[in-house]
Write a structure and sequence with these properties.
mainly beta; about 500 residues; Pectate Lyase C-like; 33-stranded mixed β-sheet; 2 domains; 33 strands
């Protein structure tokens, strides 16, 4: 950890106050900050130092071989003045993804085509003046007659960079994205605390990423989100990623960093599942996801784990282990292969395969949604293994719900509530070829009249040591067009082998 004394003595430490930045939170410090960064860059690199105090700023221009160090008690405060920010650059590919991650320059701090960049220290980035949404009216336009300039919409924005580290900082109210990274390779995020009003971190088209010891509270959008969009003008996979020793949550925005952890917010029409939070892959899924591990992660009062590919990408070779969840407001586990196809014409449907999920403990999951594993007709999810998983649902499902057959919705935006209420309380599995479930225990807090498992159009099902609570007269399994099912060593259930079950319960 760098101290102020060390930085003062170091010949390459560039104190922003020595370049004219006032730490009063009122005087715009952007010119002085960028001068300090330019000076460090001109000498071949160095550390730009922010002492204790509040520095009001607009767009800060990151540069290669330059680190920003926010000392204890320092805050970089986002200006509400649109004139303080760079205009969003044009992007001819922005029709394939949301506006927010089609543009990078309209940010509190941004860098493009850089290497060896760091943002460090125990200080805070406060995106108070950032906005949560923007629109195409700003794309490529300069402020002038008829053009309404907008403030920045993200705290940290990185495009096509390598060897980047973000460590120890806290981000409060980060705008649309607290951290947006697209095409960033050799990327480390460590011991970062984010408490924000939209996305925590979006890691897009990135390779060799290490996220560790991160705490992300994001009630209105995803906490840690991996994507592979088309903003770079080509499909590029997100690969070789580890996420470990981290937490995601959906407490009221701002109450994570202040330590009150409140749950008073009322969620409107677009968030009727409650707070978001969560770890998710997908939504934007052009280039694919591969060789990814997640371990030792806590979900608290948020949505569950979501792995999705709906725009033509491969999602494969993923291992997720040692996960605990409490008070989950929709599906605890959501695996979705779809065909929304927000991608260039003639892109084929993708694939979702070779996933291992193990050692999950989940308590108090929403009664409307089971865990959902769903492909689409003609495109099965393949080779999924779930081992040592315990889920306790709230329960309360009805016989009417048990009779439901959810619509396919191949082209819909991927979200568990897309299907409505589920006919199973535990797992709804559809269009899957090869699923192994071992040492699975599911139960409910209130009697549920739905079966624990519904399998629909599923091939090659291997079940071992399945323990599923069920109400009197309610079957454990509802099979609908299932082939090659094998049940072994499951208390209360006979060992069973079925070659073909068009419609069967037991």
């Amino acid at each position: 950890m760098l101290s102020a004394a060390l930085l003062t003595a170091a010949p390459r430490a560039f104190d922003v106050t020595q370049f004219g930045a006032a730490a009063d939170g009122k005087t715009l410090a952007t010119p002085a900050i960028n001068k300090a960064i330019d000076a460090a860059s001109a000498t071949g690199g160095g550390t730009v130092y922010f002492p204790a105090g509040t520095f009001l700023s607009g767009s800060i221009h990151l540069k290669s071989n330059v680190a920003l160090y926010l000392d204890a008690g320092s805050t970089i405060l986002a200006s509400p003045d649109p004139a303080a920010y760079d205009v969003a650059e044009p992007n001819s590919w922005d029709k394939f993804q949301d506006y927010g991650h089609s543009h990078f320059h309209n940010a509190l701090m941004w860098g493009e085509n850089l290497e060896n960049v760091s943002i460090l220290g125990p200080g805070r980035i406060w995106g108070k003046g950032l906005i949560r949404n923007a629109g195409p009216r700003r794309t490529g336009d300069q402020p002038g007659p008829g053009i309404d300039p907008l403030p920045g919409d993200k705290a940290i924005s990185l495009k096509l960079c390598r060897n980047v580290t973000i460590r120890d900082v806290s981000i409060l109210m980060g705008g649309w994205f607290a951290i947006l990274a697209n095409g960033v390779d050799n990327f480390t995020i460590d011991n970062v605390k984010i408490d924000t009003n939209r996305d925590g971190m979006d890691i897009i088209n990135c390779r060799n990423v290490r996220i560790s010891n991160a705490s992300v509270n994001s009630p209105y959008d995803d906490g840690i989100c991996l994507k592979s969009d088309y903003a770079l003008g080509l499909p590029r996979s997100t690969e070789n990623v580890t996420i470990t020793n981290s937490q995601v949550s959906g407490y009221d925005a701002g109450t994570f960093l202040d330590g009150t952890f409140q749950r008073k917010e009322t969620y409107g029409r677009n968030h009727n599942d409650g707070p978001t939070g969560r770890i998710k892959f997908g939504t934007e899924s052009n280039g694919g996801f591969k060789n990814i591990t997640i371990s030792n992660v806590v979900f608290e009062y948020c949505r569950g784990l979501a792995l999705e590919t709906v725009d033509g990408a491969l999602l494969e070779d993923v291992s997720i282990t040692n996960v605990t969840m409490r008070d989950i407001v929709n599906a605890p586990i959501f695996l979705r292969l779809g065909s929304r196809m927000r991608a260039p014409d003639h892109t084929p449907v993708g694939a979702l395969r070779r996933l291992d999920l193990s050692n999950f403990v989940i308590h108090n999951a929403d009664p409307r949604f089971a865990s959902i594993i769903s492909g689409i007709p003609g495109h099965d999810i393949e080779d999924v293994r779930l081992h040592n998983i315990r889920i306790e649902y709230q329960g309360g499902g009805t016989r009417e719900q048990a009779a439901l057959v959810p619509a396919e919705l191949e082209m819909a935006y991927p979200e568990p509530r897309m299907f409505g209420e589920m006919p199973a309380y535990g797992f709804f599995v559809r269009h899957v070829n090869g699923i192994e479930m071992k040492d699975i225990q599911i139960s409910f807090l209130k009697e549920d009249l739905r079966p624990a498992f519904v399998f629909q159009e599923v091939k090659s099902v291997s079940l071992q040591n399945i323990k599923a609570q069920h109400a009197p007269g309610v079957p454990t399994f509802d099979l609908r067009e299932v082939t090659n099912l094998d049940v072994r060593q499951s208390p209360g259930l006979p060992d069973t082998t079925l070659k073909n079950a068009a419609k069967q319960t037991f």
